[in-house]
Amino acid sequence: MNDKIKVARLSIYSNTTLILLKLVVGLISGSVSIISETIHSTMDLLASVIAFLSVKISSKPADEEHPYGHGKYENVSGVIEALLIFVAAIFIIVEGINKLFHPKDIGSIGLGFIVMFISAFINYIVSKKLYKVAKEQDSIALEADALHLKTDVYTSLGVGGGLLLIWITGLNFLDPVVAILIAIFILKEAYHLLISAFNPLLDVKLSEEEIKIITQQINKHSSVFCDYHNLRTRKSGIIKYIDLHLVFPQNMSVKTAHDLCNTIETDVEKLLKNTEILIHLEPCEKICNECTLTDNNINCK
User: Fold this and answer.
1) Is residue 138 domain-shared with residue 249, that is, in the same domain?
2) 239 lies in which domain range?
């Protein structure tokens, strides 16, 4: 079993345990912020299951029906997870507003405080593992799952802090206020995740930093080719796809041109992991008779 699947499964186990713990304490205390946290964790569990399934599917090799592989399943997973976060946040806001107008006393504040900080600690450990594997494997699904747990760390700390303030001040209205503030924070995180996961589905180009690396590696060999154009980039799952047209002098052999293409591909792949490059060879169409190869240098630019 690869690391992506292992860590995705760990997220499912931890979320299930915390949901049960929060649900019991939330029902005992009647705290809307703890109930909201339970709802948030339930969304986290659903997201973890989606992430687990998506990394399993996306790991499948390319086949006849999916010649470019199954990588975009991870992006679909990320979009679904972001939408789930939106739903959870809106539900928390609605419940918080309702509790502001219909306040209730909160019981077992100490127990709720302890559970929230246990939850924050566990989710912090699991999210760190998820982020580590997500960065190593360039997995948007695991990154989305890690973001779920990261927001859960902040929300659990927020709820715990709110319960502590209620215990100190006796002001029960702080409970729904904290819940609403947490939900607003969750909405912000969900928006960034949605953009990150959705863009590759539209074949948005790679980042400017990645494109700069590509062009630098191409230009390292500019003395051996005439020009390049139609550089296009996109990403599917963990795979970065690059294609371009490379113009060579007409008297250069196909083997020499092909060897240069291989060199460029190798140079790029050393700096950008999980890269597939397609280079289209073109002869120079100039009729100035200057486009000749002399001692491995091009005279025409």
Assistant:
1) no
2) 208-298
CATH number, domain of 20, equals 1.20.1510.10
Let me know whether 71 and 150 are in one domain.
Answer: yes
| Euclidean distance between CA atoms 217 and 242, whole angstroms | 13
Closest by CA to 134, choosing from 148, 119, 154, is 148
**Band of residue 192 on the pLDDT scale cut at 50, 70, 90:** confident
- DSSP alpha helix (H) spans, the chain: 3-29, 32-58, 72-101, 109-137, 140-169, 174-198, 208-219, 254-271
pLDDT band at 245 (very low <50, low <70, confident <90, very high): very high
Instruction: State the Cα–Cα distance between residues 254 and 263, nearest whole angstrom.
Output: 14
Contact 106, 172 (CB under 8 A): yes
Residue of higher predicted confidence among 247 and 294: 247
**Residue 55: both structure tokens together:** 């990394």
Radius of gyration of the chain (CA): 26
Q: Using CA atoms in the order 257, 260, 265, 271, what is the torsion angle rounded to 10 degrees?
A: -160
Q: What is the pTM of this model?
A: 0.60
Q: Is the pLDDT of residue 297 over 60?
A: no
Place of tokens 């989710």: 123
Residue 119 DSSP SS3: helix
Contact (Cβ atoms closer than 8 angstroms) between residue 171 and residue 106: no
Q: What is the mean pLDDT of residues 243-261?
A: 89
Angle between helices 140-169 and 3-29 (to 10 degrees): 20
> Dihedral, CA atoms, 49, 50, 53, 58, nearest 10 degrees?
-150
282 — alpha (psi -120 to 50), left (phi > 0) or beta? beta
The whole-number average pLDDT for the span 137-145 is: 76
